[in-house]
Amino acid sequence: MINKNIFEFPIIYTNAIPKIAFGWGAHETVGDEAKALNIKKALITTTGLKGTGIVDQIKSILNYAGIATEVFDKVTSNVKDYEIMAAYKVFKESGCDGVISVGGGSSHDCGKGVRVLAANEGKEISNFAAFINPPWMEKVKTYKPCTVPHIAVNTTAGTGAEVTSIATVTNTRLRTKEIVIVPNICPTLAIDDPLLIRLMPQKYTAWTGCDALAHGFEAYLTKVQGPYASGMLLKAVQLIAENLREFTYNRMNNVACERMCAAATMGGIAIGFGAGAGIVHGLGHQIGAVTDCHHGFANAIMTIPGERYNQAACPEKFADLARAMGVDTRNMTLPQASDKWFEEVERLLKDLGIRSGHLHEQVGLDKKDIPHIVKVYSNDFPVQGNPREFNYEEVVKLLEDNY
After folding, report:
1. So what's the pLDDT on residue 1?
2. Which residues constitute the domain of residue 142?
3. Which residue from 358, 265, 261 is spatially nearest to 304, judged by alpha carbons?
4. Residue 11 domain-assigned?
5. Pick from 177, 197, 217: which residue ends a domain?
6. Structurally, how many domains does the chain consist of?
7. Distance (Å, rounded) from C-alpha 313 to C-alpha 221?
8. Which of 162, 341, 354 is nearest to 237 (CA)?
9. Alpha-carbon Rg of the chain, whole angstroms?
10. How far apart are the C-alpha atoms of 64 and 59, rounded to whole Å?
11. Do both 192 and 291 map to the same domain?
């Protein structure tokens, strides 16, 4: 028998991560990599990345390698359930046998969703959402694993979705953001090329960087953490603290660019190595579901309020994070060292032009949606890992205080 009397999570499982091609010019290998996966016709899932020429370049490389392509460029921020269904129909009707996602988290999650539907008779993606209740580990046993090969060509230093075994999808009927878990959903290959990633506009560089930072600190703070993730998460936080400002204001800074690319991917890898999330992601997902604001921006404005709520539950971990951000905590008490992390993050956000809270003003949150957001969060994965126990009234007040 497994003894759960001492440990809340006595067993932590790791997930598969894909082969990763990381480096300047790595996107030029996409044709050879697709041929190696025996892809004959690829569906490219993307937002379009208008003005960058990236999608046309990837398509040209694939075509030159003898691989036919079909482009689905109707993906939007916080990828929607109906977008995945539309992409799947294009995949099926065009006779595609592989997926190439080009973009950030929404493009990659759309590609993952297409593969889920291809393996499971085209059922609506919401059928594969994972919740605490009913237990997702029982439901996932009934799903057929993804078999369609998938190359994720990454263009943001943020989500880490190119290496994770989950997809996050907006259920437009329920106005919720849901985590989809299906066997083998992780991409087959991730391509992280700084040449592409440095084409991000300034505000998206800041926002996606804040998403990467949230992966680093939340996955470190979580109660659901295996022994393989912590060092990588602290390193990711360090790299972001040292390089996000420079990369935001000068994408041509090749050192800052490369280090931000590495940090963002490290966060995704560490999550696969057995780490969870918490209240910032949990509430950030649902704020995005009802307002359609950028996920990284939602995380950024919820970072200080969410983690102040958690601070008393794990001050030693906040002290660790302060040290990772370069603070000399020697001769400080534990509360003092813990406070220093908040000071460093507040300074970083200010330098990026981001204000904490002010949810109505900044993202258009309607006060009447707060109970809905908290109710959804109460049954979502991040609530399990959050260091402070869930209390409905407290979390409602947290959002109301930052409304």
Report:
1. 61
2. 19-197
3. 358
4. no
5. 197
6. 2
7. 10
8. 341
9. 20
10. 9
11. no
Residue at 2 is within a domain: no
pLDDT at 276 over 90: no
* Residue 367 resides in a domain: yes
- CATH code for position 299: 1.20.1090.10
Cα separation, 253 vs 246, whole angstroms: 7
Name the band, by pLDDT with cuts 50, 70 and 90, for residue 381.
confident
Dihedral Cα 257, 58, 47, 376, nearest 10 deg: -70
Same domain, 222 and 371: yes
Residue 292 gets the label, from left (phi > 0), alpha (psi -120 to 50) or beta, of: left
Residues constituting the chain: 403
The answer on pLDDT for 225 being more than 90 is: no
pLDDT value at 44 more than 80: yes
Mean pLDDT, residues 229-257 taken together: 97
* Residue in this structure with the two tokens 């799947």, named with its chain if needed: 88
> Does any domain span residue 12?
no
102 phi and psi angles, rounded to 5 deg? -125, 110
Distance CA 258, CA 141 (A): 39
Query: To the nearest whole number, what is the mean pLDDT of the chain?
Result: 96
DSSP category for residue 387 = S
CATH code, 170: 3.40.50.1970
From the centroid of its chain, how far is CA 202?
Answer: 19
Give the tens place of pLDDT for each residue, 46-72: 999 999 999 999 999 999 999 999 999
Place of tokens 């960058």: 52
| pLDDT score at 176 | 98
Query: pLDDT value at position 6?
Result: 75
More confident residue, 361 or 1: 361
Instruction: Write the DSSP string, 226-277.
Output: -TTTHHHHHHHHHHHHHHHHHHHH-TT-HHHHHHHHHHHHHHHHHHHTTB--
Tell me the percentage of the chain whose pLDDT exceeds 90. 91
Domain boundary among 197, 226, 243: 197
